[in-house]
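Quick log. Single chain, no ligands specified.
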Amino acid sequence: MAIYIGNTGQVSLLRADGTSSISGSVSNSDINPTSNRFSFSYPQNTFISGDRIEIKSTTTLEFISSSGWVDNVSRNIGTWFVHVDLMGGLYLYSDFNNAIAGDTTGRVELKPIRFPQNITVTIKNSSYKNLGSIRSYEFNTERDSVDVTTLSDSFREQYSTLISGSGTIECFFDYMPPDIANTSVEKAVYMHQLLVRQQIGAEFKARLYLLSPDPHRSTQQATDSIWYEITGVLTNVGISFESDEAVRSRLEFISKGPVVLKVDTRG
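-> predicted structure:
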């Protein structure tokens, strides 16, 4: 039989799409063309730096320069990554890593407008990123049962019903922006931010790998993968802080919807 060590696993996260849209109005006083910052009235903690958002209006998005689109043609709808500053100001980027860092590099250019413009913003995420600095994770699946024993039965009868899942993830705490060599890593601080997000909720999608592709395994098994695919809801986020140890985050979650175990042996 094959024996697999824990380092063959990993956790990949997808920032779950928002179930509702946020509407507001952007006026010229909400735009700072010098720093390419804008704002509008929205509930605190709605957006998290790195979220991929869709901005839509009934007319062309006048406050976003045409250079913000790939083909340099302004439209009434567009999708960008967002960086949120401490005051709730928003900066748009075409690249996830630039949005996390919040640097001027890659920032979408904004411009003044004459009249206020009504917009609708929806979170639209589309790619999985590995959760960095994973120490361990645990995932449990359970199936409820209903007792259907009748009075005349000699033995107890059970009927299986709903499936549920729950688990924990422990990782070293990290908040620093990604470096050039680490372009697809989600930092632990995101999960802390996710729990307190008010308007959209604390949902995420995850792939919990028991076995992930590894070129160091035999050629026949190098691309084999086994993973659980779930939609999770954070229920508790804790910090383990000791003076002589690295700070660790402990994330507790429950599953929402289907729990699917997938096996890929295309290699």
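The chain has two domains: 6-14+129-264, 20-123.
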